[in-house]
Each structure stands twice: as structure tokens, then as C-alpha cells.
Amino acid sequence: MSSSSTLSRPLSALAQHVATGLRQTPKALSSMYFYDDAGSRLFQQIMALPEYYPTRAEFAIFEQHGAAIAEALRPAVNGPFALVELGAGDGSKTKVLLREFLRTDADFTYAPVDISAGAMSGLVNGLQQEMPGLQVAPVVSDYATALSQLGSRPGSKGVLFLGSNIGNFAPADRLSFLRQLAAPLAPADRLLIGFDLQKDPRRIRAAYDDSQGVTAAFNLNLLTRLNRELHADFDLANWQHFTDYSPLSGAVRSFLVSTRAQQVRIPALDETFQFAAWEVIHTENSFKFTLPQIEELAAQAGLRVVDTFTDADTDFADVVMAAHE
Question: Which residue in 91, 94, 85, 101 sits closest to 125, CA to CA?
């Protein structure tokens, strides 16, 4: 493939991201590209692993405190409101809240937001069968677009950002994102965010490097996706998954490690990338928090903590926030 023919075609978002990420030092790729169909299936397996506690912990919070969480999200003044969920996925935890709102005859509309039209279609079809009385207004969009539309929604709203996804942001990006979330919120609106809490460092590390190797397959699948979509020639036999956790920073960092000196050709970019032996590609952050850190983060974003719900082992926290009066 000639350079001129490659450059004559616009690059996909994935190709642009890979070009930027692999040209920098250290090399990095975003975890947002983990979730092709195979990646999504692998993550479903991860959530069922004995080492992976976050999903079970948050689900336990919803089962134990569902009524109180629904009450905390419900507007103080009776009237219609929207329950907006960023990154809805399969909605398994949210269904606990939806049933609680339906049980109490709340006048609300569920507005799930997901970038995947396929995932959204599956969620909406499932909800129509399980909860035929539920009003659903799906939004197939990225977070940035959805956030820009939040302020134009009439009535009160509760915004959900569950599953410890907030931990995937680097500190500066996390604060910027929270400020974006806070900007369209009226004082009566509520924001519910899931935070994975700091705990035994060995338990945290094991959750991201399980004994069955499913998390390793999930990380390596990113290279398989680049081979398929960008026609790269990553040899997965020359790569391994590595995860580390720092109790000082609260950061789990995941990497793909080149086990030998090698070069990788990516025809979609008309470029060859050199990798030294044991050079890494940083693929994911997953930060863990303390409750005082969450309070401080909320304050920096112009928010206040209204309620905090934790599981029995204090592994996880779902925190309700609001804009200042």
C-alpha cells in the first residue's frame, strides 16, 4: 500500500487514536477500545470471576439500599423526571432501581445512554419484556454529546454513572468530566456515581489479573481488534498482560508488554512501529478511592455529597451528589 493512497482516505477514530498513542512515549491506547463484540463478551466473563468483586459489591448495594437510593434520586417536588444513565450496558443493576420507581408509581422516564446501538437495542427490548409499563427514551451517543444535551431536558433529572467507570479517568480528566456532569444540573437534580474503594492491595490486584487468565485475554483482545480493523500484524505470542496496583496513588495500571524486540506494521496507517524487548503499551487506569477523597473530588467539581451507600464489606460506594443551592 502506498503512502499517498493511505493518506488520501480519512482515518477512522480508532486509527487516529492508535496513530497518536503508539507514536508517543510511553506508548498508550485507551481502554474505551476494549469493547468490541469479543471484548464485551470477555468482560461479561470477568464480572462473574471469583476475584472480580466490584460488580457483586455494587449489585449488593442496590439490592440492600434500592429503596433509599431511589428516594435520594427522586425530586423533592412531585412531577415528571428523567433517570439518565451514562454507559447503560445491560442495565442489570439499574433494573433494581427501575423496579423500585415503578413500585412507587413514580412519574419518570428512563433514558439510557450508550455508544453501541446493538447494546442499546438489546437493553430496550429486554426492558419492554420485563417492565412493559416503563417509559424508555434511549440515546445512542457518546458521553460528550449526551452531556451537552442534559441541560435541555425538561424537568428534574437523576444522572447515573455506575460500575466504577469514574476510576478509568486520570485525575485531571476525572475532575474535568465531573465538572461537565455538574454544569447542567439544577440544585434539585441528583447525580449517582459508583466508586471502587481502597482495600487490601492483593485483592485489588487479583481482580485485574485473575487466575483463569480472562482479564489477560480481555487486554490482549485489543491487539486482535487492531489486527482485524486496521490490518495490523501484532503476533499475540509476543505479548503478555501485566497489571500493577499502587496503594499510594490508588491506581491499578494495566499494560501490554512486548516480550521481545519486534516491529509491527499497521497498513491502515502506512506505518511500522518499533517495540523494544519489555516495552509496554499502557491500556487502562482503574483508580480506587477513599471516602474523604470522594468528598474532596465532589467539592472541586462544584458538587456536594448528599448520601453515601456502601456494601457490607465497604468494598464499594454509590455516592449521591447534587449541585450547590
Answer: 91
Q: Is 72 helix (H, G, I), strand (E, B) or coil?
A: helix
Give pairs for 154-157: CB < 8 Å, separation 24+. Answer: 155/75, 155/79, 155/80, 155/81, 155/82, 156/75, 156/77, 156/79, 156/80, 156/81, 156/82, 156/186, 156/188, 156/189, 157/81, 157/82, 157/83, 157/84, 157/185, 157/189, 157/190
Q: Residue 210: CB partners within 8 Å, gap ≥ 6?
A: 46, 49, 50, 51, 52
Give the side-chain half-sphere CA count within 13 A for 239: 23
The continuous run of DSSP H or E covering 18 comes out as: helix 13-23
How does pLDDT run across 263-288, given as a tens digit for each residue? 999 999 999 999 999 999 999 999 99
Tell me if 322 sits within 8 A of 187, measured CB to CB: yes
Every domain of the chain and the residues it spans:
3-34+203-287, 54-197+289-323
CATH 3.40.50.150 matches 54-197+289-323:
yes
The torsion defined by the Cα of 258, 263, 267 and 269, in degrees rounded to 10, comes to 80
Q: Per-residue pLDDT tens for 224-263?
A: 999 999 999 999 999 999 999 999 999 999 999 999 999 9
If one counts every other C-beta atom within 10 angstroms of the C-beta of residue 207, the result is: 23
**CA Rg, the chain, in Å?**
21
Q: What is the mean pLDDT for each group of 10 consecutive residues in the chain (325 residues)?
A: 43 93 97 87 92 96 96 85 86 90 92 82 90 90 77 82 94 94 90 98 97 97 97 98 97 98 97 98 98 97 97 98 89
Which residues, 6 or more positions from 108, have their beta carbon under 8 angstroms from its beta carbon? 80, 81, 82, 83, 101, 135
State residue 133 phi and psi, 5-degree precision: -85, -5
What cell does 115 get? 455508544
